Backbone:
């Protein structure tokens, strides 16, 4: 008994804002809904619940809606494979169940992009959002010296949160230019809600230097990070720190969409106005469709959930709101475009593929991701290229795509033949 | 009154944490930032905090390769960082 039902009218993958909205909208019809998330609690990254606190205030109404209807949440579970058309193999612990679905909604969210630089594999070098999540999960920060670096609005949110938890945030290093940040800020003038959020963050970060055109060149320390050398314009200096929280904006989690064969464009899942992908009965919402933030993800999830359960007219009613929220998307992309100078950060010794310990020097002789993968195992370890895929794409224009099942490491027992199901390992 | 703390063992050393704390956070709480050693033998710790980087893998109750950022502490849980995770 693993608590996973063998079928559901609608299966929603991902329990963040998009997935919660999709599941709630689908459940309103009274049909059976299964919401799957890899964490023990719903909320995703943006609504991640801090230890000792209740669910995020913004999430309450959406979460309450899940309590009604024929809806089941399966937490600490992940989709491993899509063995047949209309089924998903969902793993939990060391067990798995093949679930038949009528419709599938992909609300798989995004992860941070990590770029390699000397010393980035040292313990206590984390993501920016990564450290925020670890802090919410109970990691102690009081009095610890933190340098926040990378790019994107997440740096400000993470910096403010870490400071609120007692960290000594030394500075925030943003790789993009001052001009681009200002252009984005000016664009917010008519966006009341985002403007208020930005001003709030600014207040919470008072006294902490926010340097643009600035990034870490290398991290050093004995067994863990102890200092980071940063570059700001032509200036270079070292900063002592206990933690370096560095993330370069977000990349979408599209492994499941790719495994299903959904049409993709520039790394994102292509959808129609009803959030339907190119694969029948499969919908996608939120960051996998385009990095656009929580509010947009929520509306897209709502549309996907309604469209997946034949409430297309009700879905149509939200198109205007989605259009309004999506306006911010291109501005965000422009503002945090990566500086080409970041390509020069790795030295030949710098590890690029952390799982298999493949260095930049060992990879440089290969002309493509495919070749490198075959010769060096780059991208073939535990994370299956989730970290080095986006970084080698930026560094050398490679593609490590070519997703195969299981899309996360699975146990043999999860993939073993059962009397009532066909083998899930396929020829590919 | 705050809820009773949970007691887990990290490399046989008892650690007390508030309920809801993940194993990854409990490790950092205990000052254990070397979660596992990479295939090349260098120390590694958590990076993404969301289950995608697989750098926070440890052995939990004899199950290897578990992402400690995705698991909440349960009374009596045994966590081990010694076994080299592939």
Residues:
């Amino acid at each position: 008994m693993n608590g996973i039902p063998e079928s559901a009218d609608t299966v929603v993958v991902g329990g963040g804002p998009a997935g919660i909205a999709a599941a709630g909208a689908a459940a309103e019809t009274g049909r059976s809904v299964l919401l799957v998330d890899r964490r023990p609690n719903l909320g995703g990254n943006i609504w991640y619940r801090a230890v000792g606190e209740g669910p995020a205030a913004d999430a309450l109404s959406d979460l309450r809606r899940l309590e009604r209807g024929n809806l089941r949440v399966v937490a600490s579970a992940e989709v491993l494979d899509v063995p047949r058309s209309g089924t998903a193999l969902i793993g939990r612990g060391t067990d798995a169940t093949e679930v038949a679905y009528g419709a599938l909604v992909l609300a798989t969210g995004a992860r941070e992009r990590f770029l390699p630089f000397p010393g980035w594999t040292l313990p206590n070098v984390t993501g920016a959002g990564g450290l925020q999540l670890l802090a919410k999960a109970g990691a102690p920060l009081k009095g610890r010296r933190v340098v926040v670096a990378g790019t994107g609005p997440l740096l400000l949110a993470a910096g403010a949160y870490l400071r609120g938890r007692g960290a000594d945030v030394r500075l925030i290093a943003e790789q993009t230019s001052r001009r681009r940040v200002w252009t984005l800020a000016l664009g917010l003038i008519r966006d009341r809600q985002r403007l208020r959020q930005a001003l709030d963050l600014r207040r919470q970060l008072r006294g902490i230097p926010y340097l643009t055109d600035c990034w870490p060149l290398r991290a050093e320390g004995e067994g863990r990070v102890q200092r980071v050398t940063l570059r700001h314009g032509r200036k270079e200096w070292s900063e002592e720190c206990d933690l370096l929280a560095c993330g370069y904006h977000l990349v979408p989690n599209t492994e499941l969409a790719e495994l299903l064969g959904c049409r993709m464009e520039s790394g994102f899942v292509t959808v129609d106005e009803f959030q339907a992908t190119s694969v029948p009965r499969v919908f996608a919402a939120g960051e996998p469709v385009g990095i656009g933030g929580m509010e947009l993800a929520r509306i897209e999830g709502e549309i996907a959930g309604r469209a997946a359960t034949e409430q297309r007219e009700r879905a149509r009613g939200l198109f205007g709101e989605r259009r309004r929220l999506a306006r911010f998307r291109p501005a965000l992309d422009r503002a945090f475009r990566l500086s080409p100078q970041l390509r020069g950060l790795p030295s030949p010794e710098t590890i690029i593929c952390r799982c298999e310990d493949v260095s930049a020097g060992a990879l440089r002789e290969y002309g493509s991701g495919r070749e490198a993968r075959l010769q060096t195992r780059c991208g073939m370890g535990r994370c299956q290229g989730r970290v080095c895929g986006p970084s080698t794409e930026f560094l050398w224009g490679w593609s490590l795509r070519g997703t195969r099942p299981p899309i996360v490491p699975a146990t043999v027992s999860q993939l073993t033949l059962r009397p009532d199901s066909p083998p899930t390992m396929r020829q590919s | 009154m705050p809820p009773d703390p949970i007691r887990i063992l990290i490399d046989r050393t008892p650690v007390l944490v508030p309920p809801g704390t993940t194993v990854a956070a409990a490790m950092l709480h205990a000052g254990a930032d070397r979660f596992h050693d990479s295939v090349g033998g260098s120390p590694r710790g958590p990076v993404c905090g969301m289950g995608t980087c697989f750098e926070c893998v440890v052995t939990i109750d004899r199950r290897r390769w578990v992402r400690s950022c995705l698991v909440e502490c349960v009374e009596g849980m045994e966590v081990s960082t010694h076994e080299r995770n592939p």
Remarks:
- Chain B is about 10% helix and 30% strand.
- Strands of chain B lie at 6-10, 13-17, 36-37, 43-44, 57-60, 63-67, 78-80.
